[in-house]
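Explain this protein:
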Amino acid sequence: MSNLLEGLTVLEFRGRAPVDFAGYLLADLGAQVISIEPVQADGEVANSIDLLQAGRKRISLNLKSKAAQQIVYKLASKIDVLIEGFRPGVMERLGLGPTHVRTYKPNIVYARITGYGQTGPYSTRAGHDLNYLALSGVLNVFGRDIKDPPAPPINLLADIGAGSILTVNSILAALYRRDRHGQGAVIDSSMVDGVSYMATHTHILQNQGSRGIPKSAWDSERGNILSGAAPFYDVYKTHDGKEVSVSCIERARFSGFLAAFELDPKWADAHDQRGQWKELRDVLTQRIREMTLEQLDELAARLDLDVAPVLSFSEMISSPHHQARHTFREIGNPSVTLPAPAPRVDGATLRDLRTERQGQSTREILRQLGYTSEDLNAFVAQRIIAMDPNADDNDGVLARNRT
């Protein structure tokens, strides 16, 4: 979808997954993303390719040096967006905080991704996705039974959902405001805040219920109707040892499910009777295990049931549905199969995300900033920068920013 953000230039301070994927999203949408990575202790550059850095111009700077800070200031004057994911105060100590950078680019959109936010008692504490879920209250709802500890999910909610996607959402909103009023923004993106915001619907369900889901189904935060406690919203083993998901949340849909599987319609009354869920689960387990995954999938397609196969990543690639929708693409050399951008935007073209080695664009970017070959050689000798010795110069990377 490369033409959507064409002309937008983003400076990314390489960090962990939230920052990396935010830059990845913007690159996929067509932005020119320049990624700053630290200089290694030996001054060399790694020859490996990092696929999460696809679509970037990668430069290596020692941000503790005054000369590198001056390079960032020059870059800042030519970019639209800056993204960083250090703990609060780090960028200020480096002389690269919002106040410093705004001297060179007053209307910059400066996004700061942290676990706990820029303020508050937890703001300077260490953490990862699981910790942020825990403090947000969201982790407490995962799991089938309140008697058991919550089941940790992989890092899609805090790191990617709250850290990357919500930050990009705010960046685009801030750019829209800037285009109308000329005003930049500092974005304080806390993953704890973001996950909590993403759980708005869950809060509503717990407090008053929702259409098709009675409040009684949430008499316990963990072991609720959407966390696997309800037999009509869970995963079951099939006759051929595979797994299938069932999600008949609405009672009417569950009645249709029972009819399709030729089960006693009396079980529809158990839909909102938690005391009958254990017996109902045994009935569903036995009936579903009598059928293969292929038979279940065919039945679901024919009778419009809320049933779908549980696929592995490798099975997804060969799935007829995903092949028909071109859900995957090839990135890198040698190529790796990765998901294509989503959602689809009419008229947008899919960008071919090229991959670079560490420091591959250092020479190119710095030459465009006005530094000479003698400057670059001196910087390398002092380990202020690191460059890929085999990289070629290209023109125009910094000439396309919007303001």
